[in-house]
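To: structure desk
From: M.T.
Subject: fold request, one chain
Message: Could you run this one when you get a chance? Sequence is below, nothing fancy, just the single chain.
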Amino acid sequence: MELKDTLLMPKSNFPMRGNLGVREKEFQAKWEEMDLYNKVLEKNKDNTPFILHDGPPYANGNIHIGHALQKTLKDFVLRYKTMKGFYVPFIPGWDTHGLPIENEVVKKGIKREEHSIVDFRLKCEMFALEQVEKQKSQFKRLGILGDWDNPYLTLDKKYIADQLLVFGKMAEKNLIYRGLKPVYWSPSSESAFAEAEIEYQDKESLSIFFKFPLVNQNNELKDANLLIWTTTPWTLPANLAVSVHPDFNYVLVDTKFGKLVLLEDLLESLNQKLNLEALNVIKRFKGNELENIEYKHPLYDRISKVILGKHVTNTDGTGLVHTAPGHGEDDYEVGLLYKLDILSPVDGKGVMTSEAGKYEGLFYEVANKEIVNDLEELGYLVKQEKIVHSYPHDWRTRKPIIFRSTPQWFASIDPLRENLLEEIKNINWTPAWGEVRLSNMIESRNDWVISRQRVWGVPLPIFYAENGEAVLDYEIIKHISSLVREHGINIWYDYDVKDLMPKGYKNVNSPNGIFTKEKDIMDVWFDSGTSYKVLEERGLPTQADLYLEGSDQYRGWFNSSLTTSVAVTGKSPYKNVVSHGFVLDGQGYKMSKSKGNVIDPIKMMDQQGADLLRLWVATTSYQSDVRISDELIKQTSESYRKIRNTFKYMLGNLFDFDPSKNYISYSMRGKLNRLMTLKYREVVNKVIDAYDNYEFDKVYRIIMPFIINDVSAFYLDFIKDVLYIELENNFERRAIQSTLYDILLGLLKLLNPIIPHTTSEAYWELPHRQYEDIYLESMPEKNDFTDQKLVDSFAIFEELREEVLKELETARILKVIGKSLESLIELKLTKEQIEAIKYLDLDLELVLISSKVIVTEGNMLEIKVSKYGGHVCERCWRTFKKLNSNNLCERCNNVVEELNK
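Reply: Done. C-alpha cells follow.
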C-alpha cells in the first residue's frame, strides 16, 4: 500500500465553485420533482399555522431589485417558520387591475374607442395574465416555494365576488356615499386618485402676489386691497372667498401698491420681498374683525367675502388665503361652513370649461400664464416669480395632478377613525416607528375616494333609480356577488340591469322599474385592500400573522387593508407588520436607466445565482433604505465563497461517517470538541432570537464570524492532523467527526432560509441524511446549557493563541520557518494560563500546529519561535528528532502497520 493511500483525505462531490447561475435551476427542478412545498406542508399539517399574507405586486413588467428584496425577506420568514414546525402555506398574489395595464394595451395598438368595453377588458385581462406568468417564473427563480399554481389574482371572479361583499357590508353600514368635493385628479390619467396613488416630486411653479380690491367700504379700508399669494393662478376663476385666521393680527399699510391688508407677523418679510415701501401702518385688526368684508374679483364681475378659517398659517404667504372650494380640501371644508358654492371650471383633461369665461379651452397650465398676464395688465399683480417646490404627481404617469371637484364615491373614515387607531395599538410593528407613522396617517386621513373613471377594474355595484337616487342595497350587492362568483364580473357590462337585479325587486324611486348602472370602477387599493378574504376562502385563519412590505405601503396596502377590515369585521387583518426601505445604488442614489446604475436581479441570478442575491439581502439593515452595487455584491460573493469552502471541507471529512454507528455523544468528546459544540449552541441561540425578531442581518453577522474564525481558522485548521492521519475508527477522530456533523447539519438548517439552493446541495452530499431535503429538517432548538469553566479557560487560551500566531507570522516573514509545522515554540506562561491549558486537556503541538511546544512557568507571557531541528515525517509532515527506516514517526508507523495487517 502506497503511503498516500494510508491517509484518510477528504472526499466529496460538492464542488468548490457553485456555478449557481446554471445549477440552481437544476436544484429547483429537483424541488419540484420531489414536491417539496407540499411535503413540508404535509409534515406540519397538524401544527399551529403561521400565515404571511403576500401583498400583491402589480402585474406589469419584469421584477426589479426592490421586488427581489421584498420577496426574499418574505421567504426568510416562510422557511424559518416552516422549519420551526409551523404550518406555513404561502399563497402568492397579484394586483391585476388599473390604468398602467390599460396604457400598455393601448401601446400595443389597441384603440379603446374601437372596441366594446368587454372586448377591451378581455384584452387587458390577457395582458395582465401574461405579466403574472412572467413575474411568477422570476419570483420562483429566487428560490421561493409556494402555491404558485394557485395564486390569488384581483381579476379572479371569486376574488371580485368577495370584494363586492366587503363593499356591500360597508354600504350597509352607511360608510359609502356619493359627494361633490375636491379630490386629487390626474389630467394625464383622466381619473380621480386617492392619497396612496400620489407621490411628491419637485416642480417649477408660477408664484404670484396680487391684489383683491375691497368694495363697499367707507372707513380706513376704502380703496384698500387684500394682498394674496398663490402658486396656482389657474384656480383664480374658482375663487369664492378669502380666508383669514380669526385670532391672528392683521395690518392695513400704506405701500407703493396702495393700501394693503396683510398679516402683521409677515409685514417685515413681505416688505423686503416685495419692496412694498410700507412706511405707515394705518390700522391693526384681529382676523375676526375682517369677517364678511367684501371684495371684487379682478377678472370677473363677482363680489365675494372675507371668511374665517383656522387652516390659515402665519409662516408663509400673506396670511390671507385665496379660497376656491372646488379646488382644495381646506377650502372645501371652510366653504361648507359659509355655504359657498363649489365651482370647479376644469374638465377631466385639465382644460378650462365655459365657467372660466375667456380662459375656456385652455389647458390649465396655459391658463396660468394668461391669468397672470391679465392681472398684470389690469394693475393687480404685485410680483411674479418661478419657484421649485414639492408638488403631488400621478405615481403612474409621473405628471402633476390637480385638485378638482367632481362627483365621486367615497368611503367614510370618520366613523372608523377611533377603531382604526385602537387596532393599530394592538399590532406589533417592525420597526417600531411604523405604529406612529400609520397612526398619524389615519388621524389626518380624509374620506377615501374609491371611484375611478376608468374601464379596467371592478365596477362599483351601484344602480341609479329614475329620480337619480343611488341604490346601495346590501341584498342587491350580495345577489350581484353570487352572479359574479359564477359568471365573472363582465356580466356587469353584458347583462341588462333587470338580469343583474334580484327577481321582483322594487324601489319607490323607480316606479317604472327602470334603473341605470354606475360607470365608475373601484380604486385598485380597494381591490388589494380586501385580499385578506383569500385566506378565508382557502380555509386559513382570517387574521394573518404577518404583512411584510415596503415602507410606501403605510399609505397603501397596510392602510387600505386595515380600513376595509376594520369597517367590516372591527379587527385588523394582520397581527404583525414588518416594513423595509427602498433599494438605492452604492452611492445612495435612486436607480434609473438614464443613470446606468440599475442592478437587474434577473441578470444577476443568471450570472451569479439567486443565493448570492439572497445573501446580499441578509447583509442589509433592510428596515431603512439599503444599497447595492457591483462592489457590495463582490463583498457578498467573498462571504459566500467562505461559506461554500467551509461546507466543502466539512462534507469531505464526513465521507466515512455514519451517525447511526459512529456518533460520539457530547459528554465523551473531549474538551475542545465540547467547546466547539458550546460555541455552536451559542450561535443557535442567538440566531433563533434574531430570526424571531426579523433581524436577518443579525443572523448573517452572528454566523459569519463563527464560520470564518471559530470553525475555519481555528477548528478545521488543526483537526486535519487527526482526521487524515489516524485510523478510521480512532476515537478522537470519530469525536471530531461527530462535532463536525452537528455543526454542519446545524449550519445547513440555520442558513437554509437565506441560501436554500446551497444548503440543499450540501445536504444532498451529506452521507446518511434523514430526509430528501434540508427543508424537511427542523430548526435547531435553543439550548441554554453551558460549561462556564470550559468557556473561561478557552478564552484564556484564545488570547494566548492570538499572540503565538503573531509570533509565527513574524518568524515566517523573517524566514526563520516556512510552515508552522517546522516550528519550535517556547512558551513562558502564567500560572493561570497553564491551569487553563491543563483544564482544556490541550495537545499544544496539535492546536498550535507546531512540531514542538515547550512550556515553562513565569510571571508574564513570553514567546520564542525558532526552527525545530530534526527530520520530517513523510506522512504527517511533523518534525521529529528521530524517524524509523521508512522516514515515519512512531504514530504514523503504528497506523501503517495496522493497515498492512
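Reply (cont.): The mean pLDDT is 94. Let me know if you need anything else for the meeting.
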